[in-house]
Amino acid sequence: MESRxxxxxxxxxxxxxxxxCATPVPVILLGAVGLSAWVGxxxxxxxxxxxxFVGLTIYAWRRLRTECATCEPPTEPGPDWPKGxxxx
Length: 88
Fold this sequence. Notes:
By secondary structure, the chain is mainly alpha-helical. The protein has one domain (3-69). It has helices at 3-22, 25-32, 42-69. The longest helix is centred in the middle third of the chain and has 28 residues, at 42-69. It is elongated, with a radius of gyration of 23 Å.
């Protein structure tokens, strides 16, 4: 999997898990569909999910930085490089 895709997935998953941990959104939604008995188990699912997505984000970020560190730096054009638009 590509590093940028992993990074984006980690960021999106972390954001969703953080919103679900910090707000009563899952409690309201589960109560609305009649599954309020599951509310007690939310912490056992959401906190590990948040930690997993944060870990995925850190892994992808480090992998992305390693890939960028091995890239060749951009070189400056030599003296024979045409300056400005070329006239044909």
